[in-house]
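Researcher: Re-running this chain for the archive, since the previous output was lost when a drive failed. Same request as before.
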Amino acid sequence: MVTTIPWRHGLLLAALPLIGCDTLNAPIPAVPPPDLRIVITTQRDYPTPGEAKIHAENLAKVPIRDADDLGGGKYRMVLVCPDVVTCREAAQRIANDRTFALGVDAENPTTRQKIPIKPTREQSR
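Model: Regenerated structure tokens:
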């Protein structure tokens, strides 16, 4: 049995896989200041990025949006803050809880910094 489809439908079906390819390579949009995009490496994998977001939000004490699972216990999120200092302090609170986070990277458009940049004397003991 041979089925035929109109050429317009065949063209559409052939183009569908190509449409998804372009979205995979799309750059990550910039975050407007003073919000801060962070990548958290957690002690364990969470079933959903939403659960990791809730835990991070409780630690940070600021709203968090756009939680993405990067795999391997890494989650990208955006801290929503009224100013830069508040965002840095929120990221530091997440980094200080070693039962949750192995590390926190702050993504800047120009640089990428580890938080904490330098551990305190108490943290290194």
